[in-house]
DNA sequence: TTAACATATGAAACCGATTGCATAATATTC
DNA sequence: GAATATTATGCAATCGGTTTCATATGTTAA
């Protein structure tokens, strides 16, 4: 356990620790010959700078926290990739923190930033309650959120990078309408929550814009899982007049829908078309391949990380708010006349 | 930017910083009344301990690095889950580091440990070359590897948690043999690498143990991707006598095989049975569902993290080496008489 | 030759906690 | 009531860097 510090180097070379620090960091003046000697001895002593000491003095950790509800959802993998691309180029490390959809854990993540474990944070599905908002507002470090809360007052000033899911569902629905399909069902999540409601609105507005009838009985709330989609689809299919198409609020649900159709002996897309959302990896692996709306996870990650870096380096004065537009990926499951 | 430290608290309360430290940490003696006052003022000042300072003094970071080749492979996510379960209960944070299959990045990860960014590291697919081994051996922090190199000398003393893939392939192959299938092909990865070779051996030994003929022309090296499996399968299927079953070295390859079979108009499992390995999420989503060998990623993660915690808390004196036995998950794709 | 300036280096403060040692105050024992 | 043990607190050193300021030396300009 032969530790080596700038003091050890200084002693060996016969200079002061300050000089060693300057030689190694390249800041300030330092003679060429001295510098050479210092570097030589540093290598000999197998010197590695202590980051804790550096952090204490410089007040920078070169780390950021990515707070995410759970990692089971493949959706977040791509976000991490995007984030990491940016962080890497700035020499930052990424700390992964699970919030498990719980306010308590989100507060813990915030606390870690307060304790200067990281210089900033990117947070997914932030709970917009008073306690949380207050906690995040009192931070002296930048935070980027990836879900936006549209408040009545609109007084909060957060950095946001998010994707317009309203537009996403609308795109998917319009794609069906364009093919002449009129009787379209929507399987959504919890529509009393903001994101769930927005997705519903995308469906609704696509119909209304096309002057189609909006039949509320074709709107089924469920949960965002495969079985959620499966059960909702079953209830739709056992009706006398089944819909010609289903828009699901995410891919897992859509896959559940496809399963229910298959069991009911219906062929996709001929008997019934299906559109999902998220454009997960599996969307292109199921049979038939699933039409889906890409939510650009990786790009969200990249943008969020970039905003954070800009804030940390003083290159961003105004509010950061980036709204990404989703992209429809048409595959077999919705091609009525393919 | 009203920072607050133990000095500010000390001043307000009228005690020394040492007393504040003791009151807040609970270590050492501290009077009840003083403690109360200190806690009260700490809350008033919105005090949060500075982790950098704490780290510097205590020489502990309460973080560990998970160095992983890439994050695109869903395989690793379950590992992260397992790791995190353990870390959480010990109050550690996880730093994610991408090595991109490159030695240079692995050395960077090691350097981070040297610089005391983290207290320990879990590393996936470590390159067993001299430089890397030397670097890791000179660390004064515990490292757990998840791939084992069986060296001739066997002199290295690393902590390992890994799964016996030899046994995995053997299990899968035996499962087919038990059903009376004799003509079984093996699509492997790079068999000049240790892991690739071991998988091949599992296949070979299963046949030999059952006194079956080992036909080397049925062994196809390819790469560990869907298209790798697809191409290999095509070359198998265009022969005059096609195999009755295929064992693929991982699930992605197996899915490629299934695709090739489908295109060739063969029905799975009746015309040809397929077995994969990794038991990824998609194995149960493809049609027909894919029989696979579960490599217990989450358990690897949990065990690796536990060894690390034990080392860090002095609860482990001997070498840590845990070999996990894979588990066969039988699904439709291999059930010849289902 | 001297003023003005650039370069090289050291001394020491500082970042914000922890902790060993010394001392003071209080409690316990005989 | 004296001796001893226990509890409470402060002082000051320490962790390992960075950085400001002062000083010393060397260089160039006038």
From TrEMBL, chains A, B:
Residues 4-58 form the HTH lacI-type domain. The keyword Endoplasmic reticulum does not apply. Keywords: DNA-binding, Transcription, Transcription regulation. One of its GO terms (molecular function) is DNA binding. The keyword DNA-binding applies. This is LacI family DNA-binding transcriptional regulator. It comes from Cohnella silvisoli.
């Amino acid at each position: 356990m032969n530790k080596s510090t700038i003091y050890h180097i200084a002693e060996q070379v016969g200079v002061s620790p300050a000089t060693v620090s300057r030689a190694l960091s390249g800041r300030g003046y330092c003679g060429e010959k001295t510098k050479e000697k210092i570097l030589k001895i540093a290598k000999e002593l197998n010197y590695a700078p202590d980051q804790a000491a550096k952090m204490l003095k410089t007040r920078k950790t070169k780390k950021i926290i990515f707070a995410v509800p759970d990692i089971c959802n493949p959706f977040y993998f791509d976000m991490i990739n995007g984030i990491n691309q940016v962080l890497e180029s700035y020499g930052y490390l990424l700390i992964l923190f699970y919030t498990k959809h719980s306010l308590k854990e989100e507060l813990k993540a915030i606390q870690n930033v307060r304790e200067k474990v990281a210089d900033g944070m990117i947070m997914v599905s932030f709970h917009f309650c008073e306690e949380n908002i207050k906690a995040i507002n009192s931070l002296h470090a930048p935070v980027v959120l990836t879900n936006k809360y549209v408040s009545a007052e609109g007084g909060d000033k957060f950095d946001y990078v998010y994707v317009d899911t309203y537009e996403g569902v609308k795109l998917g629905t319009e794609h069906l309408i364009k093919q002449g399909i009129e009787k379209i069902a929507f399987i959504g999540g919890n529509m009393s929550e903001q994101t769930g409601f927005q997705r519903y609105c995308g469906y609704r507005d696509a119909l209304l814009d096309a002057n189609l009838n909006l039949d509320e009985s074709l709107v089924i709330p469920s949960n965002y899982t495969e079985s959620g989609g499966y059960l909702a689809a079953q209830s739709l299919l056992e009706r006398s007049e089944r819909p010609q198409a289903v828009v699901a609020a995410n891919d897992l649900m859509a896959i559940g829908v496809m399963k229910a159709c298959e069991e009911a002996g219906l062929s996709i897309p001929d008997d019934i078309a299906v559109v999902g959302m998220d454009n997960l990896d599996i969307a292109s692996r199921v049979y038939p391949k699933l039409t889906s709306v890409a939510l650009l996870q990786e790009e969200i990650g990249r943008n969020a990380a970039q905003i954070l870096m800009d804030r940390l380096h003083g290159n961003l004065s105004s509010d950061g708010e980036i709204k990404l537009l989703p992209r429809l990926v048409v595959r077999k499951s919705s091609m009525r006349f393919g």
